[in-house]
Amino acid sequence: MEENMGVAEDPEGNLRRGTQSLPQAKEKGKRLMDTEKAESENGDAKVAADRNGCLIAEFMLGLAGAVGGGVLGYFLFMVIVRQGFYAIVLPGALVGIGCGALSGRKSNTLGIICGILGLIAGILAEWRFAPFIADKSLFYFLRHIHELTRFTQVLILLGAVFGFWFGRGRKGGAWLRKQNPLP
Q: Which parts of the chain fold into alpha helices (H)?
C-alpha cells in the first residue's frame, strides 16, 4: 500500500484521503471499540450524549444543581435582606453556581437555561420581598414589573447574567471526577 502526501491507496486500488493508511484507521477503530466494550463490561458505560455533546446524566445533575442553587439563593436573599442588605443578585447567581458545580461539563445550553432560571428566581424573590401595595398577586407584579426601580431591574438582570455565566460550567465541575483516558 502506497501513501503519498495524505493520500493512501487501499487494496482495491481506490485513493483515500487522510493522514492514516487504511490498516492504521482500522486498528484505531478496533481499539476504540475494545475500550467501549471494556467500559460496558465494567459497568462504567457512558450515557448516550445529546446533540450538543453534553451527557444526559450530567445535564440532569446540572439542572438539579440549578434548582437547588435557586432555592438556596432565595432563602439567603431573604435572610440577608432582613439584615439590611439588598442582595437580589444572589438567587440568579446561585442558580448558575449550583448548575456549574454539578454539571461537570461546559455547556452553553445549560448556561442559557440557567440564565432564564436565574431571571425567574430573581423576579420571584423580589415579588416575595416587596410586592406592590395595590395588589400582592404575582400576575399583577409581572404586569407592572416595569415600574420597579431601574436599580432593582438591573440587579435582577445582573443575577441572570451571572446565572448564565456560571451555569455554562467548566470541564470537570466543582471537583475532579474519575476520567477514563483512551489508550
A: 22-41, 56-82, 89-103, 108-129, 138-143, 150-167
76-110 pLDDT, tens digit per residue, is 999 999 999 999 999 999 999 999 988 877 889 99
Half-sphere exposure of 181 (CA within 13 A, CB side): 1
Query: Could you tell me the residue ranges of all domains in the chain?
Result: 3-41, 56-167
Phi-psi region of 27 (alpha: psi -120 to 50; beta: other; left: phi over 0): alpha
Which pLDDT band, with edges at 50, 70 and 90, does 17 fall under? low
Cα separation of 21 and 71, whole Å?
56
Cell 437547588, residue? 68
